[in-house]
Design a protein that fits this description.
The chain is α/β, with parallel strands linked by helices. It has two domains: 175 residues, Rossmann fold (3-Layer(aba) Sandwich), CATH 3.40.50.1100; 83 residues, 3-Layer(aba) Sandwich (Rossmann fold). Strands 1-2-10-7-8-9 form a six-stranded mixed β-sheet, sandwiched between helices. It has a four-stranded parallel β-sheet with strand order 5-4-3-6.
Length: 298
């Protein structure tokens, strides 16, 4: 078994109140759940999803999937370096193999991750047994422990259940940005019956409800907790931002002296400010916003 104790995670992660007049005017109290402070390299929900999978890998090489700017790939590569594990990253986009590595993939490679590029059609079929077997064969990783894209599987959902448990009794509503849905699936299961979770998807398409339900089915045998999604704040989709979102994030950093990761956390905070200004939260509501990541610096 791989012991993660040597990494000295900061758990439970800090919970801090944030005074912001946009929430105060709405009669809402805002807390930040600083999962970005769990570990400097396995940040936020990446720790919560990777930790149980790395333990299950039990020293085997680890293969996982991601796009060219994947936070998950970087976290997996860092974990491999810190724990002495071989890591293989299957990257979406065969055409990228012939280009210089971008800063995100360069960090993965520097941490020892072996990058294996596949065409986008193959990547879309990566969960099909025959396609996965072919990927493992061509990546010379037949014996590897496989972690899905974004790290979201049954073990990851159980790992994120602890996040909900840490927030019991502290907030009426817990909100977070969602990519693959694994963190929300576990978080909702860990909350108390009188609490609810709100997910802000960062991908457009409105498909995440089915994915979260499927993850809870695999992890718990059925639905757990009370959760909803608001699909309005993706700003064009994954890895997309706009000048409006950039200005909002910069202003938030200036107001509160807290770094704001743009692809997930900024969309969450923008969504919560908008909802507060719309009067979506009853006066007296306490909201805990989960900071699931930090800005990437090459």
């Amino acid at each position: 078994m791989t012991s993660l104790d040597v990494l000295q995670p900061r758990l439970p992660s800090p919970l801090r109140e944030l005074v912001d007049d946009r929430f105060t005017r709405a009669g809402v109290r805002l807390l930040l759940k600083r999962d970005d402070l769990i570990h400097p390299e396995l940040i936020g929900n990446k720790w919560r999803k990777l930790a149980p999978n790395l333990t299950a890998a039990a020293g085997r090489s680890v293969l996982t999937f991601g796009g060219a700017y994947s936070n998950h790939l970087r976290a997996t590569a860092a974990a491999g370096r810190l724990l002495g594990l071989t890591t293989i990253g299957v990257v979406r986009g065969q055409e990228l193999a012939d280009r210089p590595l971008n800063p995100s993939l360069a960090r993965c490679a520097a941490d020892g991750m072996r990058l294996h590029f596949v065409d986008r059609s193959t990547y879309r079929r990566k969960t099909e047994p025959d396609t996965l077997a072919a990927i493992l064969r061509t990546a010379r990783a037949e014996d590897a422990y496989v972690i899905p894209e974004g790290g979201s599987n049954r073990r990851a959902v159980h790992g994120c259940q602890a996040l909900g448990a840490e927030l019991r009794g502290h907030a009426d509503l817990v909100a977070l940005a969602c990519g693959t849905g694994g963190t929300l699936a576990g978080l909702a299961a860990g909350l108390a019956p009188d609490q609810r979770a709100l997910g802000i998807p960062v991908l457009k398409g409105g498909f995440l409800t089915d994915d979260i339900q499927a993850l809870q089915q695999r992890a718990f045998g059925g639905p757990r907790g009370t959760w909803t999604l608001d699909n309005r704040f993706h700003f064009g989709g994954y890895a997309r931002t706009t000048p409006e979102l950039e200005a909002f994030a910069a202003d938030f950093e200036h107001r509160h002296h807290i770094p704001v990761e743009r692809l997930y956390v900024a969309k969450l905070l923008y969504g919560l400010v908008t909802l507060a200004e719309e009067g979506a939260f009853p006066r007296g509501t306490t909201i805990a916003a989960v900071v699931t990541g930090a800005p990437f610096t090459p």
